Amino acid sequence: MSTLPALARPDAGGAPVREGGSGSPERRPRVGRRPGHDFTRSRSGYVFLTPWFVGVAGLVLVPLAFSLYLSFTDYNLLGSPEWVGLDNYRQLFGDDDRYLHSMRLTLGYVVVAVPLQLAAALAAALLLSPSRRGQGVYRALFYLPSLLGASVAVSITWRALFDYGGGVNSFLATFGIEERSWVNNPSTVLWVIVALEIWRFGAPMVIFIAGLQQIPAEVYEAAALDGAGPVTTFTRITIPMLSPIIFFNLVLGVISAFQTFTPAQLVGDGRGGPADSTLFYAVNLYQQAFEYQRMGYASAIAWVMLAVLAVVAGLLFWTSRRWVHYGD
């Protein structure tokens, strides 16, 4: 007679034990990776990322920490930093009229230049978005100023265009407008820098074109069937569906405008003039650090800029809940 297989019964611990066997629990083979396998793979990844970690620590984190420390000291590069506590910050908001002027000037520049640049970029994107012959050439030409950036050569050339004998005066002379130096006049030099910022609208234009091409054509067709005109289509369809792209370009534009330095330094007289009309925030920081060698005070100016940018960015994100419309 064949012997029936022994029935499995649970032992006191709940593990199955075969009757007639040795009484030891039945061990099931473990399925999965070997112990420590994930850790070994992660460790290898961290080893390859070590140069990046060292670079971030040495070029970003350590300088940031040292700059924060210097903002509480009196340091002129020649001696040792002397701890002064909050004196630098008190002087910024209490005794330094040029600092307050640079803050107001930069805020005004951001409020004016950034929206005008985005408007120009959106207008160009609307013109270049539909497919037409030579589209790539037109896009490249419009993008070229943004590719050149606000470099030293571009800023010097821009100053020459608006100075005596420049191309702008030569053009206006054909309409009988008297020649003048736009860059040496405190009431006009700021607008020259704003014009330079608007001229470099290529980067946001490319992003706007990408956003416009993502809007379904069926939406415009449905609006046309309902009798919507161009203005209604633009305000009720294009702008709402493009609002995430507008928000993205706005945040980047504000951060970039707050750090404007080269155009203000070279289109003006190089010292924030004439009459402090080009004393932007970054120009004032540069003067305090490298002309007056007040490194501690300049570090305080830099950290206040970081705080202001954080507040402005936070306000933009807070208000975006009301006017930025995503897919839902």
From TrEMBL:
<keyword id="KW-1003">Cell membrane</keyword>
<dbReference type="InterPro" id="IPR035906">
    <property type="entry name" value="MetI-like_sf"/>
</dbReference>
<feature type="transmembrane region" description="Helical">
    <location>
        <begin position="46"/>
        <end position="72"/>
    </location>
</feature>
<keyword id="KW-1133">Transmembrane helix</keyword>
<feature type="transmembrane region" description="Helical">
    <location>
        <begin position="241"/>
        <end position="261"/>
    </location>
</feature>
<keyword id="KW-0812">Transmembrane</keyword>
<dbReference type="GO" id="GO:0005886">
    <property type="term" value="C:plasma membrane"/>
</dbReference>
<dbReference type="InterPro" id="IPR000515">
    <property type="entry name" value="MetI-like"/>
</dbReference>
<feature type="domain" description="ABC transmembrane type-1">
    <location>
        <begin position="103"/>
        <end position="316"/>
    </location>
</feature>
<dbReference type="InterPro" id="IPR051393">
    <property type="entry name" value="ABC_transporter_permease"/>
</dbReference>
<feature type="region of interest" description="Disordered">
    <location>
        <begin position="1"/>
        <end position="37"/>
    </location>
</feature>
<comment type="similarity">
    <text>Belongs to the binding-protein-dependent transport system permease family.</text>
</comment>
<keyword id="KW-0472">Membrane</keyword>
<feature type="transmembrane region" description="Helical">
    <location>
        <begin position="295"/>
        <end position="318"/>
    </location>
</feature>
<dbReference type="GO" id="GO:0055085">
    <property type="term" value="P:transmembrane transport"/>
</dbReference>
<dbReference type="Pfam" id="PF00528">
    <property type="entry name" value="BPD_transp_1"/>
</dbReference>
<keyword id="KW-0813">Transport</keyword>
<feature type="compositionally biased region" description="Basic and acidic residues">
    <location>
        <begin position="25"/>
        <end position="37"/>
    </location>
</feature>
<feature type="transmembrane region" description="Helical">
    <location>
        <begin position="107"/>
        <end position="128"/>
    </location>
</feature>
<protein>
    <submittedName>
        <fullName>Sugar ABC transporter permease</fullName>
    </submittedName>
</protein>
<feature type="transmembrane region" description="Helical">
    <location>
        <begin position="140"/>
        <end position="161"/>
    </location>
</feature>
<feature type="transmembrane region" description="Helical">
    <location>
        <begin position="189"/>
        <end position="212"/>
    </location>
</feature>
